Amino acid sequence: ALQSNIDFVTVGDHYLYDSVLSWTEFLGLFPKRFEKCESGLPRMFAMARGIDGAPALGMKKWLTSNYHYLVPEVDETSKLSPNFDRFLANCKRGVQFHGEAKAVPVILGPVSFARFATIASTSSATKQSLVADLIPVYKDLLIKVKALGVKEIQIHEPALVFDDAELLPHFKSVYPEILPGDVSINMVSFMEDVGEDNYQWLQSENNGVDVVSLDFTRGETLDLVEKYGFHASKTLGAGLIDSRNVWKVIPEVTLPIIKKLNSLNIKYRVQPSGSLQYAPWDFDNETELKTHVAANVLSFAKQKLGELEIVAAAASGTGDLSAHTTSWSVYHTARKELSKAGAIVAERVANLKDEDFSRSEDYATRRPKQLVGTPLLPTTTNGSFRQTGEIRRLRAQLKKGTLSLVDYEAAIDEQISYCIGIQEGLGLDILVHGEPERTDMVEYFAQQMDGMLFSQQGWVQSFGSRCVRPPIIWTDIYCPTGITTREYKVAQALTNKPVKGMLTGPITILNWSFPRVDISRKEQAFQIGLGIRDEISRLEESGCTVIQVDEPALREGMPMRPGSKEEYLTWAVNAFCLSNAGAKASTQIHTHLCCEFDDCMEAIGRMDTDVKSSSRSNSATLEAFQRIGYSNGFGPGLYDIHSPVVPLVENQYNKLKIFLECLDIEQTVVN
Hints:
By secondary structure, the chain is of the alpha/beta class. Its cofactor is Zn(2+).
């Protein structure tokens, strides 16, 4: 930002773990189990990771992204006890560094905070009362932020994108009530359009908002602007640079938006569609990718700042996007020439029939044929054991060439043997090989598929200090050889108990990658689904009788608007079914889900697996499955692997007893 002509730079938005968690601590709103913790960072990290006797706050996916936020909890003891000293100090440093005119403090809005919080049944609070309690707190905070001398304040209200009619009255009660006056207020939403009712309120005259920042890369934002216009006294923050992908601006997509905004005589700014935390940092660090044909159309966070100036010049008529057009043309020509299996994959997708998406027998018919001899309430894990320092050293040595592939695989086989031995010793019934060979549940599979690119330093945050390097889909995806069969055979040879084949589902691979932008996500999902289908066939040929196809990211790609949501869920579930519908009736297919289900239960019910597993299962999870009449197998998760806290055996036992009040014992697998 310092090296470019960017007009405004956000400050106060650097967080040591999670933005929602930080605001939970700033507001001093915490559940009873953390009341003895020292306030500030000690309590914040206790809420993030848990401590003895106090499990961590729950995690949820942030809107439609792979980022996880910590869910604020309000119980009968929770009281607002705000302390904004650390936040204000961060803002002050930013103002001193960038200047009062350029520095823009960022605040998580009160309506969104209340929307993301959960309220315990033991509390008398409601969402409405929580919002009311937050009003005087935020009013005082904004006065202090204004006193820093800044000219503009960003208030992030991501809840604007939810299709929830109950939120609009809250927005109207908060704004302009909390605003201090005489400072520009920029209200920001992202990852989806805000819907008709919220849009009309945002561009109305009496809400105290001066700048409205909207995402033009997802949803139907331009349609809303065309239909309802935009208030002449306000400025539109046009999110034209996609902050959630790694591709450069596509002139054929962006220029028509610019043309329309100019024709409507709207006063607007050019900006990213949201925070750049969802993109890798700097393409200049990618020495290997720089030699690829896609290099000239890739753009990481730092490059997107440069694109801001180029797009802004095109919008003002002082520049154009001709260089971008040339780069994309060269890339598409080279891609078609280099794609290894484009014609084969395209033909397979085009020739899919209805029967390719359905198992050969229904659940009731195939279930008695599966895992014959396995005891009631069989125990298993959801797959991976920890990646130790020794395993990472082996991988680094292989990459450097100081360890041969033969020696590396022998060392990995020792790790598999260790994992099998632990599970045998513990008496588990369905074993896993532990996945020591895998860097990441998506990256590892993508590395075995043609059509994927991989960065060296393209890390993005998943939660806390956990970061991932999403693959980049650059052409048609093809899976020519086995991915997991070698390790499966090693593990199964060590035990007489069944070993699960462990695969990642097509929607998770798609949603945890940076997808192509020249074909639909649906087509990409079907291509990946065919690759996983082929791998299931290879595992079966190797003797595997139980296979888990994980889809933890099914929900996060789901749009907020009802029409788009149903369209997405239809093709997403079809892609998943395509991946495993070819399995034998005697093969038990598991899937692991770790998302909220309430708003997509019918779709999850259409995923015709033999066992569905949920990582943080509770009574609400079971009730959701009961509402749709779900009758297949279920695998409740008893042990929270995201927290270092070891749960008591008694707690797990009681939790399982509660589950069995709702579940058929013969169809329950204990995870």
